[in-house]
Amino acid sequence: MVGFLDTLVFLEQDNNESQDVDNLVSFEKDWDKNKVMLLSNQPHHLISNISYRAAKPKSEERDYKTKSFELAQVVRATCLEIDEPSSDSYLKDVLGKYTKKWLERTHHHLGATHDAGYPINSNFDYSVLGELNRFSINNVGDPFIEGGYGVQSRDFEIGVLDWFADLWEIKKDEYWGYITNGGSEGNLHGILVGREVFPEGILYTSKESHYSVFKAAFILRMKCIQIETLTSGEIDCNDLKKQLLQNKDKPAILNINIGTTVKGAIDNLDLAIQTLRDCGFSRDRFYIHCDGALSSIMLPFQDQVPRVTFKKSIDSISVSGHKFVGCPMPCGIQIARIEHMKELTNDHDYIATRDATITGSRNGHTPIFLWFALNRKGKQGIRTEVKQCLDNAEHLKERLKAMGASVMLNKASIIVVFERPPEKEFIKRWQLSCTGNIAHICVMPHVTSDKINEFVIELIEKRSTWYKDGGKQPPCVASDIGKENCVCPLHK
Amino acid sequence: MVGFLDTLVFLEQDNNESQDVDNLVSFEKDWDKNKVMLLSNQPHHLISNISYRAAKPKSEERDYKTKSFELAQVVRATCLEIDEPSSDSYLKDVLGKYTKKWLERTHHHLGATHDAGYPINSNFDYSVLGELNRFSINNVGDPFIEGGYGVQSRDFEIGVLDWFADLWEIKKDEYWGYITNGGSEGNLHGILVGREVFPEGILYTSKESHYSVFKAAFILRMKCIQIETLTSGEIDCNDLKKQLLQNKDKPAILNINIGTTVKGAIDNLDLAIQTLRDCGFSRDRFYIHCDGALSSIMLPFQDQVPRVTFKKSIDSISVSGHKFVGCPMPCGIQIARIEHMKELTNDHDYIATRDATITGSRNGHTPIFLWFALNRKGKQGIRTEVKQCLDNAEHLKERLKAMGASVMLNKASIIVVFERPPEKEFIKRWQLSCTGNIAHICVMPHVTSDKINEFVIELIEKRSTWYKDGGKQPPCVASDIGKENCVCPLHK
């Protein structure tokens, strides 16, 4: 049995605190087996072993039950068992079926930051890249040290790294870097380097940071202090100051978000550096890692926006490669000041061989895709795409405003934040990312103005149904995006 | 200037200990710029900031210089600068050039454990898999919880995980796992789970373990005790016992190698568990992670070999997917007892969302390749390949023995260890992995008997040149592979 709930109220097993887990949109329960399976509409939710009380669907009468459950295993129902040995026609059928599904999903997704369709002009002979899958390409170890394994693509990798080093204004012989498996690995690496520079350092990061930053602190066994945010989603430097002053005896490792996941907020780097200075942290007592996320590749192509550059007192930047540049599989670019790498490659007793990357074997395909995409687009092409995305985001914001919806769009950002639609099916259909009362659309290059119009027309129609009786009202989002952007009955 | 050296003697900057870094085969120096660039023939070497004395090439007169240098940046010379925007024909040319190079390198490599040629029968319409690169497939987060992003391949992923769970004898509802970016990430994850189960635990692992195990201890800030090995390369359980008894107050997290990197040695799991018991470690005071490496997928298809199974007191296994199964990019399979995942997903103050994987965004292509390969090969196909590899390894060992070379082949292993050839060019040409005085060949499915014969004939010819005068002698490898296997002048 799979059902949809409007609300699930959770009780943490240990501390009995109730928690509204808003992103859980479906569950499957089996009281007898003492098991409940939950389906989240957020990619990052893992639910395990907590007790809950559930409001029964379609009923005003609330029936609270408390059970604990195991790790949710919700997608096994459709899993593709290995039915070996298989005929070629069976394999082709399966791949064909999924290809069709992915094409359909690619058309509709608005929430995700992934550019699902790899941007290849149709006049290019695509088979050239398809051929790559014939090779096991592995850039095992350090990109700058040629390994014994011959089938590798370091030449492409360093080309890409140099391009980003140039973008963020650090000289070739002053940086070290590598192509990671994604932004999360980059954050883990950057914060690890920070830890090795300052083993006693404390990690500071805003509460709206990507969860991979907090996960890195957990993996790396570091003390982490969460900093409050402004309504925009930026780090609150007043709170940062307060926390720094309380921990003046320990060096600071600061994570700066260059575009938060939900609101696309860009932390004020200059103010953060000034805050560190004001609190008495000299350059040799802080390390700044920038979670480059989506915006660190976009800012250099915009005018009159804050600059993220190694000319400022920053130490590492990581950015996702599969998002704005485009790559069929997750990847990221990690750049750090080379002087810090000494710390990471110092002898640690039992490490005889040294490798400053997180993983050893490394994907040799992603550097080729990135190299290929950057070559084809060129800086001018990216500049054009960035402008188009910003224009489209502005357009979407205006359309949402015009239909009477609450909406916010941060400066220099392409993430449009608005009131969460009340219909699960609509959210699922457009693959909107939702958090609490807000939803967001990341206006990537694949989110064209046609797609925006299609979405807007459907939303206008739906809203007239959802809110027609004057009974149900759009949610208040003043605490999420500010009173000035909220047009709920109370604030309009 | 790039030159080859016979010997490089290194002085560690800090502790002044001299160290023979045998794997460095070339260097580029610029005395004026105070820089030296080094080229390693080992994939895992990262050299930075150490001082050295170098014996000048082609000269009996030794000229020792001591300089410190920065991280070696040796492959920049050939790196492919992004020359944007580029014409399609330029891009095609570059890819074509590299494809040719990779084909050539794929033919010769013997040392690497990567199956470079993706095993596709020529009668299969290859374009079906080539098409995958059109999609950005991302299994972001937990494999068992469907995310909001629609273009994903969890159905394939769980199919593959179930196949391995079945292989290692753990029930579907008793395991949790995911497809990683390679064996190193798997080791990091398995040891992280062990740490969360026993936060005060000490990691024990043999000194011949893969460096990713030591790196995991470093990343995870865990105490790690290195255990001595037998000549075979197996963990020495007498030493393990000694160390365990000295640390009885702390829980034990034991890494077991199911095939060491250099010698393919399989740690004696049963004896290790018995040793834990003998030292008073009850089941609730130890965690065993198995670095499945190459052999954990092979053992289940062999007769009269030790069994690696969750029916024994083990807690997690990780294995590389790109090695024996075959996949164009690095990947791995990670399986752990589901009960331990509670520890990993427990609330850690600042982690609001939870994700038990190391990275967040995850490659959605690798599960499809693995699923595809397993379907096509089937268990019977793998059994046949395993037998063929074992036979070929035995054949290679006999041929090496017959030519008068020192050689060792562990039971149930496909890694043939033998005396290191004295010619760098020969090593490079065959992409042999070398450590000290030994070289090894990993007889993977692509190392056919034809390729072995080609190699053996060339080696016989070369040996007659290298050792013709009776002046130069093959190296003594008694300390590496035992007196009984060494046929150097002293031991033969």
TrEMBL record, chains A, B:
The modification N6-(pyridoxal phosphate)lysine is found at residue 323. The keyword Metal-binding does not apply. SUPFAM superfamilies: PLP-dependent transferases. Gene3D superfamilies: Aspartate Aminotransferase, domain 1 (3.90.1150.10), Type I PLP-dependent aspartate aminotransferase-like (Major domain) (3.40.640.10). GO terms for biological process: carboxylic acid metabolic process. Signal peptide: none annotated. One of its GO terms (molecular function) is pyridoxal phosphate binding. Belongs to the group II decarboxylase family. This is Histidine decarboxylase. It comes from Chenopodium quinoa.
